UniProtKB/TrEMBL annotation:
The keyword Coiled coil applies. Signal peptide: none annotated. This is RNA helicase. PANTHER family: DNA HELICASE IV (PTHR11070:SF17), UVRD / RECB / PCRA DNA HELICASE FAMILY MEMBER (PTHR11070). PROSITE patterns: UVRD_HELICASE_ATP_BIND (PS51198). Residues 12-39 form a coiled coil. One of its GO terms (biological process) is recombinational repair. ATP binds at G215, V216, A217, G218, S219, G220, K221, T222. GO terms for molecular function: 3'-5' DNA helicase activity; ATP binding; DNA binding; hydrolase activity. One of its GO terms (cellular component) is cytosol. The keyword Transferase does not apply. Residues 194-577 form the UvrD-like helicase ATP-binding domain.
Amino acid sequence: MTIRHPDYEQEQKRLDETVSAIEREIEILREEVREVTDDYVKQVVGYKKAKELRYLEDQGKDKPYFGRVDFLKDETYELDIVYIGKRGIVRSDTFDALVVDWRAPIASLYYSGESKDAFYRTDKGIVRGEVRLKRNFAIEKGKITGIYDGAVKETIRRGIGHPDEFLEEGYIDEFLAANLNQTNDSRLKDIVATIQSEQNDIIRADKDRPIVVQGVAGSGKTTIALHRLSYLIYNYQDTMMSKKFMVFAPNRLFLNYISDVLPELGVDDVQQATFLDWAAKLAKPLLPKGWRITDPQKLLRLFFEEGQDLREREITQRRLRFKGSLACKTALDNYLRYLAEQEIPFKTLSFVYSRTQQVFSISKETIRELFTTVFGHLPYRKRLEALRKHLKQEMNKQLFAHLREMRIDLDKQGLTRFERMMEQILEKYLSSFPQVDVFAAYRKLITDETLLRRLAPDDVEDSVIADVCQSSEALFANERIEPEDVAPLLYLRHLVDGLEQAGQFDHTVVDEAQDLSALEIAVIALVTKRQSLTVVGDIAQGIHGYRGLQTWDELTGGVFVQPPAAYYTLAQSYRSTIEIMRCANEVLRRIRLPESVMARPVLRHGEMPKMLSYAAPAEKWEQTARLVRELQEEGFQTVAIVTKTAEESKQAHKALRGAISELVLLGSKDSRYPGGVTVMPAYLTKGLQFDAVILLDVERYTDSEWDAKLLYVAMTRPVHRLLILHEAGRISPLLCDVPDELLSVTL
Ligand SMILES: Nc1ncnc2c1ncn2[C@@H]1O[C@H](COP(=O)(O)OP(=O)(O)OP(=O)(O)O)[C@@H](O)[C@H]1O
C-alpha cells in the first residue's frame, strides 16, 4: 500500500465531495420513492429508483468508486478525469457524472491500463488518446486507505521478488494482491475493481458472435462470463433482456454457488440450469410412454473405478462419444436427406376438371425441386406445409387460367366444390410422404447398423458403428435412453419439427463447456439468438473426457462456422497460491496436453502443499479431524474434504461427523452449498473454491488421463491450503514424481 500518496489530500477531498453529493441524492430518492402512485409507468420508474437508492445506501455512499483514469483525447486535447465505480452515479440537478459505471465504454480504458496509444469504442466510433493515469483506491467507509498508481511499474518498483520472476510467473499489481489475499468467503464475488486487461477483452467482446475461452483453473472464466452478462445488459438493454439470458453450468451445487454474484452485478433474473435438466424437459415429450432417461452418475463408476470391464468401457466410450459428435449431427442431417431422396415417392400430381375434361399437372421434378431445394432450409414438417400451400396455389393458378380461357364463370358453390376437391387431391397425394416420428426415427438410425453406416461420415470406423448400434439396442430394450441421447433427439426434432425454443435466449453462457459434447453445444447455439454465446472451459479439467470435448477445434472449426467464433486463452490463474499451482501442474504434465492449458499462478505465495500418510483407517480419520481443527484455528472458513467417489464421501462423512461439528455431506443431488466444512466427491468440486482442501485416499488415483484430470481439478480448488492424505506405502503414480521442493512429504 502506498502510504500518504502525494495526492492523498486532494483525493480524499474529492471523495468527501462525492459522498456529500451522494447523500443529497439519497435524500431526493427517499422522497421520490415514498410517493405512492397507481400509475403503472411511475411504478416502474419508482422500482428502479428504489433499487438505485438501495445501492447508494448500502454500498455507494461508503465506497462510491474504486478507480480513476485520466484520458487525454487526441482530437480535442482535453483531459477527461473519470472516477469508476460499480454503478454510475449522476447528480440529478446538474446531470454531472460523479461516478462512471465500470461497464460504460470509457471505463474500458481503466482496464487496459496506462498507454500512449489508447482508445475506446462508442456507438459513434472510436475515441483515441492517451491514458495519462490509472489509479486504484482502497476505500473503507468513505475514507481512502490506499492509493495505487499503475500496475506493473508499482510492483517492480517495490521489488517483490526479482523482475524476471514476474515475467515467468505472471506479475500482479499490489491492488490485485491486496484483493486476492483477503480470506475467501467461499462464494464467487465481483471483481470489477481488478478485472485484468485480457479478461476485459472477453467481457467486452462483440455480442453478435460466439466466443470460446480456454482458461486455466482459477483464471476467472466463470467470474468474467457473469461480468459479461452484466456488461451486455448495461450496454444493450434495448435489444437484450436479462430474463432471456441463460447460464448452463455443470451441476446444481455450482449454480447455487454462483447465484449470489449475479444480483451483485446488477443482473437479477437470469435463467440457470444444467444442460441435462433443461434439455430433458424438451426431450421427454418425444419419448414413448414409460420411457426414462438414465442417471448420468451411473457411468462414473465404469470410468473411475478400478477393476471394471475394459471392453464395456470401450464400447460405452465409443457410444457416448459418437452420440455427442458432429459425425452424429451429420448422420442426422443425412437421414433427413435420405428420407427425401429414398423414401418419398415423388410422383407427378395430376387432376382433371370434369366439366371440360381438362387435365392439369405439376411434374414430379418440380415437386422434388420444391421439397428438397426451394423449401430445403425448413424443418421437415414445415416443408410439407409449405409444399402443400405452394401446390394449392399452383393448382388454383392453372385452373383459373383455364377457366378464363374457356370463359367459364364459377359460382360460389362451384368454387367451394373445387376447393374441396383440391384439398382431397392434396391430402391423398401428400399421404404418401412419410410422417416422421422423432423418437422412432432416431431409434431406427442409432440401432440400424446398415443405415447408420450409410449415413455417418466415412471416417467413423465400422467397428464404432457396430458398437454404437448394438449397445444402443440393448439400452433401448429396457425402455431407457441415456443423457447422451438427448442432444441428438433435440437436433432431430429441430430438423423435423423445428425447435420452437429456437432463438429463445438473447445470450447464453456455457460454463465448464469441456464437459459438454459438440452436439450439445450445437443444440444450445440453435436456441440462442445471433449465436450470441460465451463458451468457457478448460480442456485440462475435462473429467468427463469419455463424452465431452477433446479440443476446442470441435467448436471453432465445427459448430461455430458462420459467424466464426472468437477464441481466447487465459493462462493466468488467480485462485490458488504459487505453491499449490506448481504442484497441480506436475499432475498435468503426466498427460500430454497442449501448453496452453498449463496455469501460470499470480505472484501470491503461501504454504507448500503437504502430503501426509497414515497406517490404519482409524488414524486416517483422526488425522483428517485434526487437520480440519488446525485449519479452523487459523481462521479458514471453508474447508472441503474431497474423496475420489461419492461412496467414499459417504464413508468419510460417517466416520468424521462425530469429530467435526456441522460437517455436511454433499452429493450430486444437492443444490445448496452451505460453506463451512464439507465432504464431497472430486467431480463435484468442479468450479467451486475453498479456503483449504484436504484430499483423501489419493493412492486411488491411477495413472490414467481421467484420474489425472480429476485429481488436477481437486488440487486446484483451494485458495490457501492443500493437504493430501494417503495410506502409508501406497502413493498415487500421479504424485510420485513431484519434486520435494513442490510437495512437502511427511511419512
Ligand atoms: N481479475 C481478478 N481480480 C481478482 N480476483 C480474480 C480475478 N480473476 C479471477 N479472480 C478470482 O479467481 C478465482 C477463480 O475464479 P473463477 O472461479 O471464475 O475461475 P475459473 O477459471 O472459472 O476456475 P475453474 O476453471 O478452476 O473453476 C475467484 O476467486 C475469482 O474471484
